[in-house]
Design brief:
7-stranded mixed sheet
């Protein structure tokens, strides 16, 4: 008979690990602990792993010796210590809230550097930047938020790696426009979840209702009536992939500099209110597109980078915009219709690159969390661009792809890492890559 893992263990916390964990050891076994800090002594509850498992996962439930970097958590439902006292799990999505902001950024730099060394075999010190204009408390930055709906019809969020739904009455990481909707006051029975988008410039928010099985159009219309007037409301059914307008528009209007963007309800846009400006500025400075050049914007989404790239290359240049999502590609066509020098192609990046014979002077990559992958890296490098700008939201997938570039003789010229997800373990980066001499 297999002996179960102990429920509670006392641990001394070591280095941070990618994914919001910290490494500890218990009787020789590695334990990945959440809601802790290096140097702390904690009591942790084992959440995953038996006696025969190679490693365990655990959540901190009590701090026996605290780090000087530990602070009061800004969001009670996500506070692991408060949750343990209440006999429940903490909400996911603010797993670094117990850490002072400056310390969060130091830890993220350590984590990023470790991924570079482990996956790309590159030793590099990493500094994590706060975006210019960030609030001192790291709150009020999310322009997108997704909520579940509990059995009682009330707004809730999932615990980490769990189907358990925890009721919520606020979302301090979100911009005021999302909190002002007070969706937690409504009976949302008939919904599986609600996703909210609120443009950073104060434009009309959109509430996207995802119906549960059996929800009727009449029930959805009733919920839409109860949502704050002046807010657009739409229903999204993943199967069969249908977006239905209930009130107002099925999209939000976003702004970045002089450019306007339409982003449909299920479409992608950078979450942090300062991310579009921060990243587009980094991309334009790093890639430095020139008049007359041919540039590829891969995983282009609604066209955040495509528009300024097209402006820079001018009418004598060309920008190839590639996006796999049909909805995002449709948005891009709406957003970029005034640029004759843009070619928009909807499809898989590797396949599109294979079908395109033209030389590329510069490439911008902004892949999803899984990264671009070896085949795309090889396809990009084979076009011999003078520069590649790589935007990444995951240090592990970026480090893996960087390793592929380095193996092909490319160089990492510069790297900037931005804290665009305060109070979480996530971060965003931008790297400038150039071909080697050989």
């Amino acid at each position: 008979m297999t002996k179960p893992a102990p429920q509670l263990i006392e641990l001394t916390i070591g280095a941070p690990a990618h994914g919001g964990h910290f490494v500890a050891r218990h009787e020789g076994r590695v334990v990945f602990v959440r809601h802790a800090l290096p140097g702390e002594r904690v009591l942790a509850r084992v959440t995953d792993g038996g006696a025969d498992a190679g490693f365990w996962r655990a959540d901190t439930v009590e701090v026996l010796e605290a780090s000087a970097d530990r602070v009061a958590h800004p969001w009670a439902p996500a506070d692991a210590l408060a949750a343990a006292k209440a006999g429940r799990q903490p909400v996911g999505g603010a797993e670094f809230g117990h850490i002072a902001l400056a310390a969060q950024r130091r830890l993220k730099g350590t984590i990023f550097a470790e991924q570079l060394q482990r996956l790309a075999k590159l030793d590099r010190e990493v500094t994590v930047e706060a975006p210019e204009g960030e609030y001192d408390d790291g709150l009020g930055w999310r322009t997108r938020a997704a909520f579940g709906v509990g059995p009682d019809g009330r707004l809730a969020m999932h615990a980490h790696r769990s189907d358990e739904l925890i009721p919520v009455q606020d979302m301090p990481l979100a911009v005021d426009a999302i909190n002002d909707l007070r969706l937690w006051d409504l009976d949302l029975s008939g919904l599986e979840r609600v996703e909210v988008a609120a443009p950073a410039d104060g434009g009309t928010p959109l509430a996207l209702l995802v119906p549960a099985a059996g929800a009727t159009p009449r029930r959805l219309a009733k919920i839409a009536e109860r949502i704050e007037p002046g807010v657009s409301v739409a229903a999204w059914e993943p199967e069969p992939g249908r977006l239905t307008r209930l009130r107002g528009r099925t999209w939000v209007a976003e702004t970045n500099g002089a450019h306007q963007y339409r982003v449909t309800g299920e479409g992608f846009w950078q979450i942090h209110r300062l991310a579009p400006a921060t990243l587009s500025s980094a991309v334009m400075d790093g890639v430095a597109p020139r008049a007359g050049e041919r540039v590829a914007d891969l995983y282009a989404g609604a066209g955040l980078f495509t528009a300024p790239l097209a402006e820079a290359v001018g009418v004598t240049g060309n920008v190839l915009s590639v996006e796999g999502s049909p909805a995002a590609s449709k948005d891009a066509r709406k957003n970029l219709h005034g640029f004759g020098q843009i070619e928009i192609v909807q499809g898989k990046v590797e396949r599109v690159l294979r079908s395109q014979a033209q030389v590329l002077d510069a490439v911008v990559l902004d892949p999803p969390r899984a990264g671009a992958g070896k085949a795309v890296v090889q396809a990009v490098a084979s076009r011999n661009p003078r520069v590649v700008g790589y935007v990444a939201c995951d240090p592990a997938s970026f480090a893996r792809d960087l390793g592929y570039f380095l193996q092909l003789g490319w160089n990492l010229d510069s790297l900037r890492v931005f804290d665009l997800y305060p109070h979480t373990h996530h971060m965003e980066s931008f790297a400038v890559l150039t071909p080697g001499d050989n």
